[in-house]
Design a protein that fits this description.
With 720 residues, this protein is an all-alpha fold. 64% of the residues lie in helices and 2% in strands. The chain contains 35 helices and five strands. Pfam families: NPH3.
């Protein structure tokens, strides 16, 4: 029995557990393993030549005992190191920059001994890079031939080789292995889209059907993940590292794939690696992460910046026909607020969001979870949306201003019921949209009304402890904090209500909203009167339109040939050249110009009513001040008479009874009707409307009188 370097020549060679596990992970196609074949070949070489293995090659934590002659004859790397080998140094350690694992070196060593190397998609990239590093003649050409004729013809093989190139960079990039696999995968993906069988079955792989299912829905990462799994080629691409995925997307666009198929692939990739909470938890819980949360955010930020760079431009997105749902942009925006992005990437994402504002739904806009220490309006999500919408409103080339204004008003309704929202902050958010951009004020009225309702509830709850002791009202510390919050966020004053409601224009309220505003006791007096006046204008316009339509209908019935009127034989027919509809004195002056004049008259009447309301408010304030001064004088006079011991007269006694009345009236605010009773509000509004009606009737009477005088003056010369 002979022993060569501790190896029994007559017994079977057994691998170590580490070598077995590494071989199993590296290439499942290798059977028997390359390591076992190499050890047998070394033993056979020792038997044939009678020379022991004098060279020990170290690679990481493993070592290989080999013969000098095969290595020097086939490997340029070992031939250059032959001088050190002749000096008696038997150990050669490969540097850390050596590409590939130990199996790649085993395959090269087996090739140096003259045996064939079993190539497969799992080891061909590593063997090719290792052969290039060691300068093995002939093996590199065999690997390139295998890649071109076998790997690049199969989707699965090209995908495996590309994934195996990740630890082999940059050598694999220099040998064009990565670029060849990328171009091949992109070409096969284009062929998958153009497959006639798919077109006959009306299947749009990964693009049309998936994205159409996401339009008009709230973003759901799990639903998007299920849609991505329907097409295997998309599922394979989004599993790649981002560097390879980015190059494949660029190759798809370069080879002519339509954007409606490319954009959904980017969407699915971002959903898996950036928006998915499961991926974030997996990264945060890995053993390699020092600080799990920070490392997960850093990896997500790097991928998100790359995804933002892959997003199509605005013109391309329009050409894609909605290939990317609008909710996706807002989902990326919400995720970016928790990550550290570069200024360039953040600016580009904001521009993408701003260009899609007119197509967004209120459910797409980000909203934070309720926080105990601050208001929702002060969160970073709302402030980010405020900045984007304000920049869009200030842009010269903005699109869909009316749609954006309605979207913003709906967004305000979402958090207008927050009890921690300050009135000045709400007014600031309302002012983000210019007044002229709002076509309707219905949603703005809803937001303000919601805020006033919440404030009224808090005001009612804050005065409840007056009936019981404050010490027994709250049971624990949490309720004490709630009571402190109630005291901090009391009901609004009349001036604050007037400031908020000054943004409302009753002329832009719908008929139902206008009726609700008239009956809303939380609204200021000025708004209620304006709503009443606008409602009167709406009613007058409705009656006018009804009378015009009725007159036109009957005019058509009287015109011969219209199908409704047939003259009798004894009656002359009405000439068709002058129909009643054109000869009517009421219709001769009506037209588009008259409609504009009526609209202008309505606007002037509305402004006149507003100025009149302000004048009445000033008069109420002056009367209130006069009554207060009178109350002070009578109070001092009665006190002086009581000190003198004189019996007050009937007038003084009557004056002494007025302070209670004056005090009761002093609670009435001149600028807000919220502190008055509902009956008083309606009576006050009715009196004002009667005054307006009298003024209007008086004006019409004067105009008619002038017309009658003028007609009489013109008839006298004719009679003479």
């Amino acid at each position: 029995m002979k022993l060569v370097m501790g190896v029994d020549l007559e017994t079977e060679v057994e691998l170590s557990p580490a070598a077995k596990s590494e071989v199993a992970v590296f290439s499942p196609y290798s059977s028997p393993s390359t390591a076992l074949l190499l050890q047998r070949r070394v033993v056979a070489w020792s038997k044939e030549t009678g020379s022991p293995a004098t060279v020990r090659v170290r690679l990481g934590d493993r070592s290989f005992d080999l013969h000098k002659d095969p290595l020097v004859s086939k490997c340029k790397y070992f031939s250059e190191a032959s001088a050190s080998l002749q000096s008696g140094d038997d150990d050669v350690e490969l540097p850390a920059s050596f590409p590939g694992v130990s199996e790649a070196f085993e395959a090269i060593a087996l090739f140096c001994y003259g045996d064939a190397v079993a190539l497969d998609p799992f080891n061909v990239a590593a063997v090719r890079c290792a052969a290039e590093f060691l300068g093995v003649a002939g093996l590199g050409a065999r690997c390139d031939l295998y890649i071109n004729q076998v790997v690049l013809q199969s989707w699965d093989d090209a995908l495996i080789v590309l994934q195996r190139c990740q630890p082999l960079l940059p050598v694999a990039e220099e040998l064009l292995i990565v670029s060849r696999c990328v171009e091949s995968l992109a070409f096969m993906a284009c062929m998958e889209i153009l497959d006639p069988e798919e077109q006959r079955r009306d299947l749009q792989p990964g693009a049309g059907a998936a994205t159409r299912a996401l339009v008009g829905r709230r973003w759901d990462a799990e639903l998007v993940k299920e849609l991505a799994a329907r097409d295997l080629w998309i599922k394979d691409l989004i599993a790649l590292p981002f560097d390879f995925f980015q190059r494949i997307v660029q190759a798809l666009r370069r080879q002519g794939m339509k954007e409606k198929y490319v954009s959904p692939v980017v969407l699915f990739y971002a959903n898996k690696w950036v928006l998915s909470k499961k991926t974030h938890k997996f990264w945060a819980s890995t053993d390699e992460a020092v600080d799990g949360e920070t490392d997960a955010n850093r990896r997500a930020a790097a991928i998100l910046e790359g995804v933002i760079g892959l997003l199509p431009a605005e013109s391309a997105a329009v050409a894609a026909g909605g290939a990317i749902p609008v909710a996706f942009y807002f989902a990326l925006l919400s995720r970016s607020l928790t990550l550290e992005l570069s200024d360039e990437s953040r600016t580009k994402l904001r521009e993408q969001v701003a260009s899609n504002l007119q197509f967004a739904r209120v459910d797409d806009l980000p909203l934070p979870e309720e926080e105990a220490d601050r208001s929702i309006a002060d969160s970073r999500e709302v402030r980010e949306m405020e900045s984007i919408v304000s920049n869009h409103a200030a842009s010269v080339q903005r699109k869909g201003a009316e749609a954006v204004s309605e979207l913003w008003d709906r967004y305000l309704v979402q958090f207008a019921g927050d009890p921690k929202l300050r009135p000045e902050r709400l007014a600031e958010l309302i002012g983000v949209i210019p007044a002229g951009d709002r076509k309707t004020h219905n949603h703005l009225y809803e937001a303000i009304n919601t805020y006033l309702v919440v404030r009224q509830v808090f005001n009612a709850r804050s005065i409840m402890p007056t009936t019981v002791t404050c010490l027994n009202f709250f049971a624990d510390k949490e309720e004490d904090a709630n009571f402190a919050m109630l005291q901090e966020h009391r009901g609004l004053s009349g001036e604050e209500k007037a400031t908020l409601c000054s943004h409302l224009d009753c002329r832009k309220l719908s008929h139902e909203a206008c009726i609700q505003a008239v009956q809303n006791e939380r609204m200021p007096l000025r708004l209620i009167v304006q709503a009443l006046f606008v409602q009167q204008l709406h009613t007058h316009r409705a009656f006018t339109e009804c009378s015009d339509s009725f007159r036109c209908m009957h005019s058509r019935e009287l015109v011969p040939g219209a199908g409704g009127y047939t003259p009798s034989p004894g009656c002359p027919a009405i000439p068709t050249s002058q129909p009643l509809s054109s000869s009517s004195p009421y219709d001769s002056h009506r037209g588009p110009r008259d409609a504009k004049l009526r609209a202008r008259d309505d606007a002037s009447d509305y402004e006149t009513a507003s100025f009149r309301i302000q004048a009445l408010e000033q008069e109420i304030i002056s009367l209130k001040q006069t009554l207060q001064r009178h109350n002070t004088l009578t109070g001092s006079a009665s006190a002086r008479r009581e000190r003198e011991g004189k019996e007050p007269s009937f007038r003084v006694a009557a004056d002494a009874g007025t302070p209670a009345i004056i005090k009761r009236r002093a609670t009435v605010s001149g600028s807000c009707i919220g502190s008055m009773r509902w009956g008083s509000q309606r009576r006050c509004a009715s009196r004002i409307l009667r005054v307006f009606a009298r003024i209007a009737v008086f004006g019409r009477g004067r105009s008619r009188g002038k017309q009658s005088k003028c007609s009489a003056a013109t008839e006298q010369p004719n009679c003479m």
